[in-house]
Amino acid sequence: MSERLITAADVPALLAGAEFFSTSAAGEGIDFAGVWLGDILDHTGPVRLVAAGDLDPGTACAAIGAMGSTTAMAELPPSGDEPAVLARSLEGRCGPLGAVLPLNAASVNALFPVAAAALLGLPLIDCDGMGRVFPLIHQTTFELAGLSLAPMAAVSAGYDSLLLETGSARAERLARVVAQSAGGWLLCALYPTRVGELAGAAIPGSMSRVLEVGRVLLAHAPGRPAWTGGPAHPPWESGPAPDGGPSWEGGPYREGGPGARRVVAPHERLLAELTAVTGASVLGGGRLVEIGPSVRQAAALFPGNPVGLAVHDHDSGRLIRIEAHNELILALSDGSLAAAVPDLLCLLDRGTLRMTGPGRLTAGDLVDVLVVPAAPLWHTIPGLALGGPGAFGFPLRHPKEASR
Amino acid sequence: MSSVRAPRVAEQLTVDELVRYGPLGRAQMLVGEDLGRRVSRVALVSELDQIRSHGPGTVVVLSATLGHGAWMVESALRLAWERSASCLVSPAEAGPTSATAQLATRMRLPVFAVGEDPAAYALELAAVVASPEAARARLAARCAELFTERSSPRGILGVINAEVPGVTAALLLPDGHLLAGQSAAARAEHQVRVEVPGPDGRRWADLVAGLAAPPAPTWAESVRLILRLARAPLTTSVARERVSAVYGAEQARAALAALFARPGGAVEAEPGVDLPGWRLEGRHVAVFLRTDPALEGAGLSPGVVSAWQEVLPELPLAPWQDGWASWWTEPEIESGQVAAALRRHLARMRVPVPLSAGVGRAAEGGEGLRASLEQAVLAAGATVRLGHGEVRTFDELGYRALLGTLGQAELAAAARLVLADLLAAPDGPVLVVTLAAVLDCGGSTGRAAARLGLHRNTVLGRVERIRARGVDFDHPDQRLALHLACYALLPELQNGRQAATQQPSQ
Lengths: 404, 506
Prior knowledge:
The structure holds 2 protein chains of 2 kinds.
Chain A: E1 4-6, H1 11-20, H2 31-44, E2 47-50, E3 60-68, H3 70-75, H4 82-94, E4 99-102, H5 112-120, E5 124-125, E6 127-128, H6 141-145, E7 152-156, E8 161-164, H7 168-181, E9 185-194, E10 203-204, H8 206-219, E11 253-254, E12 263-264, H9 266-278, E13 281-293, E14 306-313, E15 319-325, E16 327-333, E17 336-340, E18 344-349, E19 354-356, E20 366-372, H10 381-387, H11 399-402
Parallel strand pairs in A: 2-5, 3-4
Antiparallel strand pairs in A: 1-2, 3-9, 6-10, 7-8, 7-9, 11-12, 13-14, 13-20, 14-15, 15-16, 16-17, 18-19, 18-20
Helix pairs in contact in A: 1-2, 1-8, 2-5, 4-5, 8-9
Chain B: E1 13-14, H1 15-21, E2 28-31, E3 38-39, E4 41-45, E5 58-62, H2 70-82, E6 87-91, H3 98-107, E7 111-114, H4 118-130, H5 132-148, H6 153-163, E8 167-172, E9 178-181, H7 183-187, E10 190-197, E11 203-211, H8 217-261, H9 266-269, E12 283-291, H10 301-311, E13 318-320, E14 323-329, H11 335-348, E15 355-359, E16 363-364, H12 365-383, E17 391-393, H13 394-397, H14 408-418, H15 420-424, H16 428-440, H17 445-452, H18 456-468, H19 476-502
Helix pairs in contact in B: 2-3, 5-6, 5-8, 6-8, 8-10, 14-19, 16-17, 16-18, 16-19, 17-18
Organism (chain A): Nonomuraea wenchangensis
Domain S-Me-THD N-terminal (chain A): 10-165
Region (Disordered) (chain A): 228-260
């Protein structure tokens, strides 16, 4: 019914979208995965992206996702045989897979499930279990819905194959150790289940959303005319600039009739489109006044590099403080908690019109802070316990929780 | 029990006071906005949410267990601000950054960082907040201890200025003259003032503390207490200075008497005078100070000598005859220079009585000095009739200096008798003044009119009235006596005229 095809031509949009949803790790060295996926799709042909409802509810399926370091992955890239190893491992326990879905449609994990679907010749279900990047493999809506993570199949860069049959938290810990010893990353198939179980357990439409956001970002990439491509054009984008000047080529542009001379900066137009596509809100934007190492929280269990950022909001004069531990965990506006995990915080670099993260920023850069609300499942009490600020060691209540 | 306890002022300390003499003085002040906030209590918080339960005026101390990071300090800052806390104290390692400080500045909430254990620190703060009097007493005790180590008013004022931050102190005479300390205190909009008694127990000066902002009642009380503690040492130091001034002056008088007792040539051979600043060899110009004969008395010396030393600390002043003597010694000195300098210094000097001065001629050596001083004494006898602050050299006065030696009181009494007819006229005093001017001008009514600033016809009219009263000033054998009689009356007539002209405005 709502089937779409993902072809090699979609890879750039997929990459850009994957970058958007991977918060602070934004686009750090995931281009290799795009090249790899493009090659695979060239050979296998397009992948069918289907809604869960369009498949037989009894179809066996599993979530595909990589864990570990993307840097290690770029150095020891997957060969392409890994998905078959995973499928074989799980087949003995759950029968042959009829479909795959992404563990989390963000960063490299927006691309690997597509590759797995292509290589296994299976449809890709348009949903995921995080809607973003979480550091632990069991920080999923599947977990919240009571799906079992195990049995979990994993394969390393050296084709070490592993089938873990244990609880979710232990699976995470064991797999993390294996990943470190086996080359830095593992490709995993986990949460094996039936498609019918996904309703209420998965975040629907995640892959489509990644593609859509990716297309918006590509349309605004520097050097491209703003009105080519992109799914949603705001009304003012329907033709040449209304002041009768030359066509828009990426420079400033005036909104409204000849009387209205307000200049709409390129980043404002991109933000308008991104918020329209994702339901995000803009927390603020301005100059990055501070960036530096922060302090690890006592309760934090995660691998992570604590970084603190402070943005001086140009319009309101407020101070937006962002705390990052690999992910952007929380944002304070004048000391008051304005946004926090599980909602997605992202930073748009006004200069390059690309998503950015602490690793690529220096003090003085101009950035906008976006907040994409997480799926409603995440805002439940168990959801916030699993993916809220407390899960990252921050003794703060999520704004949703505080307002309850 | 006759003592009445002073009414207690509001007992809450301010953040400012905790900085000045409480434990906050040890903390690093990251944001010093709005330090006048009152402190009601201290709260050690180990969870951010605990801040919500504290009311206004709380010093929020973040526990080390609360966690670290600028985000945490900023969250705490926000909550503290929402609860109108008085200030926020964060462990230094918690990591408040410059952006945090900017945020606090915008919120106008003071923020401090402490390097020590926040729990122990909070306890110490709480003890101080619970007992503001103890904290105030600690500062006062510190000042009192330092006062005992200082012997001069300058040193005592220095203690206040250094130890009581935010306060400038000055010691002022009742007429506003600055004796010691910082003149800024006298101009400060907000002042705390206490009277300082002199050695005689009467008000001698005011000790003034200037504050930049309107002080909290507790702080004003603290400052007042410290000023009161400074009073006794100030009185003592003043008494000591006066005693030493009198002692020094008596030494100088003895030395001067010894100098004048010797025959002329022997002075250089055996100097005998061993006082700092006194030199007998070289070129001297002597000066002699006198006050109004009606005011003269032995009790004046300490006041005059200490006022002189305040302005000219390097020159000794010796009580001598019915005035005070000193001299300048420099290779090229001239009496005109000394007169000009002395005029300047007399204007600045805070003396208890009006002073006038005579200046002798420049002369070499001990014998020259004696001659110069005699000339100065003679000149001072004449200038004392001219009014307060007058300084004349012996040469300026010429032969008039001679008139200074005449016994003023006897001469004036005799003059009133011989000029009784003239004085009895309705405008008698005016006629005497006019007569003196005409005689001064050798009988020329034109020149006398110019000197008095009158029209010649006015003078001619007065001369007619003078003659009508039987005064014949053309008669040669009457003329000198008449002139002297006028001169003897002039000072009191001039003073009377001044008083009469001042009366309407009083």
